[in-house]
Design goal:
By secondary structure, this protein is α+β, with helices and mostly antiparallel strands. 14% of the residues lie in helices and 36% in strands. The longest helix has 34 residues. The relative contact order is 0.25.
Length: 239
């Protein structure tokens, strides 16, 4: 009788140990999952555009997507001028910089590209109510800064200067502090803002490798700053 009790006791002990051994990997996995930082939920904004009316609305790059130091870069954005006037597509500024390190603006007379706080004027207008793909390219090694519109090189200029400082702030649209006094502000729509760490050619719907047209990258001032449009180039109706 005593022998049976001992066997029963050891049998229960072995059973508990077996169950614990099988449960241990699951407990470790749950602990690692709880300890790991949450990842941002993102998705490609194929059917979403930014709607920027003057300086009222804008998009901002979130902190998790800090701008790195790049010696080569390509920035492309699709722009549609909806109402005439001065507009800002984007501006990137380093800490405490009064003027953009990189940016793109326009009005009824020209396009303007910012590089290291210097404004470059390009005598070209975008046709209103039509989408245009505008790209800026910067190559520190070759000392070049170029503007491309709809796949055509508009201008390439020699700029002997350092690389653009990293870890700044990036805005889509006009910053309230940069609102030009007395100027008539236009309204623009933006789509597919993307950045790559090279000066090569990229596909029309290819997302950026440094900064992409992805929900995890962007914050918005209000729901009115964005709009869904299934007829956009990379939307459902074009796939």
């Amino acid at each position: 009788m005593l022998l049976k009790s001992i066997r029963r006791m050891y049998g229960l002990g072995f059973e508990r140990q077996r169950r614990w051994t099988h449960s241990l990997p699951l407990l470790i996995w749950l602990w690692l999952l709880a300890a790991s930082p949450p990842k941002a939920v993102g998705y490609f904004l194929a059917d979403t555009k930014a709607v920027l009316n003057g300086c009222e609305n804008h998009w901002t790059l979130q902190d998790r997507a800090a701008m790195p130091l790049l010696f080569q870069m390509t920035v492309c954005v699709d722009i549609r001028v909806v109402a005439p006037g001065a507009w800002v597509a984007f501006s990137y500024s380093s800490v405490h910089a009064p003027r953009p390190e990189l940016g793109l603006e326009g009005d009824d007379h020209a396009l303007y590209g910012w590089l290291l706080r210097v404004r470059h004027r390009f005598p070209l207008q975008l046709s209103p109510q039509h989408w245009h793909r505008v790209c800026l390219r910067r190559d520190v090694r070759r000392n070049t800064f170029s503007l491309e519109v709809d796949g055509n090189l508009v201008a390439e200029r020699t700029v002997i200067a350092r690389a653009i400082p990293p870890s700044g702030t990036l805005w889509l649209g006009c910053r309230p502090r940069d609102r030009p006094p007395g100027a008539v502000l236009g309204k623009v729509e933006l789509y597919l803002f993307r950045m790559w760490g090279d000066v090569g050619d990229h596909g029309l719907c290819e997302d950026g490798t440094v900064i992409g047209w992805n929900a995890k990258f962007w914050g918005m001032t209000s729901p009115e700053a964005k709009q869904r449009d299934p007829y956009l180039m990379c939307g459902e109706t074009h796939i």
